[in-house]
């Protein structure tokens, strides 16, 4: 824990593994499970989501073996978040719902609030906007019952801002972003500050307020870059590229895309919430410049869309995801999906 903020993840992992070895030697299953959660956190910080998923599944198995409901809830919540980051929204939703039920059973109001936010966000990403509003209604009720939840309140505001943006309600997005930005500054959280500015950029661009959008994207880019979050920073770059393209400067847009493509090649799952916006912008910019790489980016984007859709078992929800969620309809309009 002490080494993680310093990004000395190798040392942090070494200490966690030593702790796990000691717990196994002494047959302390509960301690082993908690030590494994450190490995989950480290793997997520490094972007190794497959390792994080494997470790988290082990935590859940251990928690079930000792019958600890709270630890089962924690591991289900974390595993759900990993599935979300992998674009596997169906399993993510199921696991987060299980976690919510467990947290309510044990009376953990703080994590209940966090799960309500996560469920609202997942429904937004799947295009199930009515259901997202329902979850955020529960969130607004729950947040009033617990004190000193600045971080949880901020996450809820940001998630609601994302929903407003997905529904093209950009004025409401800006209102929620204003509250989020102020709160993020008060608690000194640069990553949430960056997220607020990113959403401000998206909303301002939707209103064709080009100057405000550019300022917001540039600030988000600076904050993410300073924090070493390149996978998130590329979405701010994509926003700047989209602005340049909208204002009739495909050459300037291409400069931003050239900076994005190496990150996109190294890690397909870039972006703050999902990667398809970034892929879609890159494809449009490359096509506008008659760059043959546009086809490869389009294929990558549609493959991601199909992968994500395949992990939503509910037919109605999958239909919403493919045809309603932001940017997905624009991909479908290209008529290249089978």
Distance between the termini: 47 Å
Mean pLDDT: 93
**Rg, Cα atoms, Å:** 20 Å
Poorly predicted regions: none
Apparent shape: globular
Helix content: over 70%
Strand content: under 5%
What are the key terms here?
338 residues; mainly alpha; Serine Threonine Protein Phosphatase 5, Tetratricopeptide repeat; 17 helices; 0% strand
Task: Give a short synopsis of this structure.
With 338 residues, the protein is mostly helical.
Structure description:
Among the domains are: 148-228, Serine Threonine Protein Phosphatase 5, Tetratricopeptide repeat, CATH 1.25.40; 256-338, no CATH class. Helices cover 79% and strands 0% of the residues. It has 17 helices and no strands. The chain has helices at 9-25, 29-45, 49-66, 69-85, 89-106, 109-125, 129-143, 150-166, 170-187, 190-206, 210-226, 230-246, 250-266, 276-288, 293-310, 315-323, 328-333. It is globular and about 65 Å long.
What's the layout of helices and strands?
Elements (H helix, E strand, L loop, with lengths): L8 H17 L3 H17 L3 H18 L2 H17 L3 H18 L2 H17 L3 H15 L6 H17 L3 H18 L2 H17 L3 H17 L3 H17 L3 H17 L9 H13 L4 H18 L4 H9 L4 H6 L5
Helix pairs in contact: 1-2, 2-3, 2-4, 3-4, 4-5, 4-6, 5-6, 6-7, 6-8, 7-8, 8-9, 8-10, 9-10, 10-11, 10-12, 11-12, 12-13, 12-14, 13-14, 14-15, 15-16
């Amino acid at each position: 824990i002490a080494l993680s903020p310093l990004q000395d993840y190798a040392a942090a992992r070494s200490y966690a593994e030593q702790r796990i070895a000691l717990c196994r030697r002494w047959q302390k299953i509960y301690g082993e499970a908690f030590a494994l959660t450190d490995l989950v956190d480290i793997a997520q910080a490094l972007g190794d989501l497959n390792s994080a998923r494997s470790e988290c599944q082990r935590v859940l198995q251990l928690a079930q073996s000792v019958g600890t409901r709270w630890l089962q809830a924690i591991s289900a919540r974390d595993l759900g978040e990993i599935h979300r980051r992998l674009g596997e929204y169906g399993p993510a939703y199921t696991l987060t719902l299980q976690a919510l039920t467990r947290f309510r059973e044990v009376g953990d109001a703080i994590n209940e609030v966090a799960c309500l936010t996560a469920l609202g966000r997942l429904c937004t990403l799947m295009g199930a906007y009515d259901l997202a509003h329902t979850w955020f209604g529960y969130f607004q009720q729950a947040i009033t019952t617990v004190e000193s939840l600045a971080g949880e309140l901020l996450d809820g505001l940001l998630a609601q801002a994302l929903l407003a943006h997905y529904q093209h309600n950009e004025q409401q997005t800006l209102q929620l972003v204003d509250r989020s930005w102020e709160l993020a500054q008060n608690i000194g959280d640069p990553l949430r500050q960056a997220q607020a500015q990113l959403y401000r950029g998206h909303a301002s661009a939707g209103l064709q307020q080009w100057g405000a959008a550019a300022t917001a994207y540039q600030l988000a880019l600076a904050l993410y870059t300073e924090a070493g979050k390149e996978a998130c920073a590329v979405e701010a770059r994509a926003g700047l590229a989209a602005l340049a393209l909208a204002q009739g400067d495909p050459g300037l847009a291409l400069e931003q895309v050239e900076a994005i493509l190496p990150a996109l090649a190294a890690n397909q799952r870039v972006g703050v919430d999902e990667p398809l916006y970034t892929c879609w912008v890159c494809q449009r910019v490359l096509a506008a410049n008659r760059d043959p790489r546009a086809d490869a980016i389009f294929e990558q984007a549609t493959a991601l869309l199909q992968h994500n859709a395949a992990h939503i078992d509910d037919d109605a929800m999958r239909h919403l995801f493919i045809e309603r969620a932001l940017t997905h309809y624009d991909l479908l309009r290209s008529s290249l999906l089978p």
